[in-house]
Amino acid sequence: MEINELNPDILSVKPSALRVFDHEISEDPDIVKLTLGEPDFNVPEHIKQAAIASINANQSHYPFYWGIQELRDAASTYYRDKFGYQYTADQIVCTVGATEGLSATFKTLFRPGDGILIPMPAYPVYKAMAGINQLVPIMIDTTDTDCVLTPKQVTDAIAAHPDVTVRGVVITDPSNPTGAVYTEEQLAALVPVFRDNNIWVISDEIYGELTYGVKHYTLSKWLPEQTIIINGLSKSHAMTGWRIGFVFGPAGVIDQIAKAHQFEVTTPTSIVQYAAVEALTHGQNDAAAMRKIYEQRRDYLTQSLDKLGMTYVAPKGAFYIFTKIPEQCEQDSFTFARHLAKTYHVGLMPGAPFGDPQALRISYASSNENLHAAVDALTKELARVGSLAK
Ligand SMILES: Cc1ncc(COP(=O)(O)O)c(C=O)c1O
């Protein structure tokens, strides 16, 4: 048996560069990591108690593959109240984290050879999923427009690929890795171009509850018939390891996504589904305290980077800052990040996997102490190369 006889779409996709880099630097026992997008908060107590109660109540049987009715009802109400989603329980599938929701959606919406627009910088999973599904990823550089996709960029990208049928786009709002957040006007402006070109919008709103001083809007408000929303509790309720997400979509297509999901995973763990009901019925304010702390950390980091003369995309949501590597420093993001890890025991994520090889992503889902260590390391490095702002 030869490895190269295996599925070429899997062979050609690389393991997540983010995980590989994080793993690599984790060998250092003293490393301070601001690498992964992992809330440093515990799951709220009432959700933990609900999970324990679910175990004790022997809720251990196969749930319905779409997810239990109570959870889909709760998700319908919760996200309507939070963001104005208009989806009934039979338009919602409960998934194993947002990731499985993305995977089932990619698999269902597209045919091999279809083009998918990915505004850059982007969460690298989209490109990997495009590859696994034999799609043609069309990367659109949005750095000139504050990392917000514009209608002109969409029409230009379509015109530049006359041989590709563009059938999808991913909008990540708020964005990983930049923290950019679309305004209502910016989203509404995109609707005609998506409608006229029959483009499915995969709207990844996993950071929707984490915005600072601005409101989160959903494209589904204007284009529900062509939008699939991905959301979940990983970030809002610090439940990354529990693996629970949701896909919202129009009747008809959501039934097809549910099938793709069923044959991949059946359904998320029963106990987690019951705990998630608690999160959505009594945890409407769980994110508020975390959001406040994230905002303070964001302010600390932006002020610190300003003092160092480092430039970045203004972060209004999620918990990341995407900053350019200062000119005087080593410009290759992997080499520079490795240097910071080795010299100062501080792990920052190289920007290359997100589409900018001369940038770093700093996650502030990490303690103040860790943030101070990161700023300290950058300060020392800039002093070393003689590039400290006057
Ligand atoms: C933009 C974005 N979408 C989806 C995910 C995956 O979420 P989950 O852990 O629920 O699968 C992440 C995780 O970092 C993310 O940043």
Number of self-contained structural domains: 2
- Strands of the widest sheet, in order across it, are 2-8-7-6-5-3-4
**Radius of gyration, in angstroms, nearest whole number:** 21 Å
CATH fold call of the largest domain: Aspartate Aminotransferase, domain 2
Which regions contain 5 or more consecutive residues with pLDDT less than 50?
none
Cα end-to-end separation: 62 Å
User: How much β-strand is present in the residues?
Assistant: 5-15%
* CATH top level class name of the largest domain: Alpha Beta
Helix percentage: 40-55%
What is the CATH superfamily classification of the largest domain? Answer: Type I PLP-dependent aspartate aminotransferase-like (Major domain)
Give helix and strand order, one letter per element, not per position: HHEHHEHEHEHEHEEEHHHEHEEH
| Topology, number of strands | 11
The unique ligands bound to this protein are:
pyridoxal-5'-phosphate
What global shape is seen?
Answer: globular
Explain the overall architecture.
Its cofactor is pyridoxal 5'-phosphate. Belongs to the class-I pyridoxal-phosphate-dependent aminotransferase family. Residues 30-378 form the Aminotransferase class I/classII large domain. It is an enzyme of class 2 (transferase). 41% of the residues lie in helices and 14% in strands. The protein is α/β, with parallel strands linked by helices and 390 residues long. It folds into 2 domains: 3-42 and 286-384, Aspartate Aminotransferase, domain 1; 59-282, Aspartate Aminotransferase, domain 2 (3-Layer(aba) Sandwich). A 7-stranded mixed beta sheet has the order 2-8-7-6-5-3-4, with helices on both faces. The structure holds pyridoxal-5'-phosphate.
